[in-house]
Every structure is written in C-alpha cells, then in structure tokens.
Amino acid sequence: MAAYDIRVFGDPVLRQKAAEITVVDGRLVKLAEDMVQTMYDAPGLGLAAPQVGVQQRLFVYDLQDDEGAKVLVNPVISEGRGEWLYEEGCLSVPGLSWEIVRPKEIHLSGFDLDGNEVSVEADELMARLFQHEMDHLDGVLLLDHLDEERRKAAMRTLRERLMATPKPAVAAPAANRFGLTLP
Ligand code: NI
Known about the structure:
Blueprint: H1 26-41, E1 46-48, E2 58-61, E3 70-81, E4 84-89, E5 97-102, E6 105-111, E7 117-123, H2 124-137, H3 148-164
Bound molecules: nickel (II) ion (NI).
Nickel (II) ion binds next to helix 2.
C-alpha cells in the first residue's frame, strides 16, 4: 500500500462536491487501501477521498475499537437527533481544532466494497466522525461550522501560517497533524 499526500486548506479540491460512485472495481479497492494507509500514517480516525484529491463519494475510518478499518461508499446520513459538543480537528486543517455542536445520533446508510448495503445507527464519536467525513464529500470544512468570530481567528492563523511557509510548501511534521481525537 502506498500513502497519499493529504490535501490541506487552500486546495480547491476540498471545496468541490464529490461524485456518486457507480462502479466498484479494482481501482476503487486500491484507492481505499491507499487511503487507509494514509489515514494510519497521518494518523487520523477518518479520511475522505477528496482529502487525497479524488472526487468520489467514499471515506475510510477506524475508530480504534478492534473492528479495523472500514470503507463506506456513497454514504447517506439521515435522522439526526440530539446535540453533542465535541472538539474536532481535521487532517486538512492541521494543528487546529474547535469545539463544535452537531447531532449526537445519526443514521448512516451506504455500501461496502463488496456492494453490500450498510446501515449503521451511530452515536457520539462514531456519529461525529461520519458527519465530519460526509462534510468532506460535500466540500464542507470545519471552518464552515464556526461562528464569525472563531472563523475570523482561524483564517488569520491559516493566513499567517501560509505566509510563514517557504515555497514549495512543506508538510507539517507528523506530530502536528491530527484528525478527530479520542476524548
Ligand atoms: Ni477532515
């Protein structure tokens, strides 16, 4: 398995809506395997295809609950219930995180790589991860969930960081990259 470079804030690919997957073939299986490797290398708990520059509705995740890495194709979220505050980070906005309120429970349906239908009732961290990765498939980033004050502060930090980065941009050291962190 090979690892991808993770696209970071400023890359237009992160702002595009990903396309429905119509064919699950060897190429897609390879993509999923490489995304899992990239997620583990980062390390993060989840990774969506647009984060490696692929405009397809697929994400991988591993909640570190001994179930191993899983792949979801064409996921759909419905039935958001309740509210839950959780500090979220994103591999595409490395080094920053914010407390964000989202529905506590959701229902997710989609397909696995064998074409089997998947239906999951998700709560708390799993529900949060699914909502976060679904956002990536729709070109939505954490910044879009912030109020104006926090968003302005975040943009300032990101701009300063961009200006301080010699070109070509170098990847942040692994220790500064994180995804959804466990509580
Ligand atoms: Ni993310």
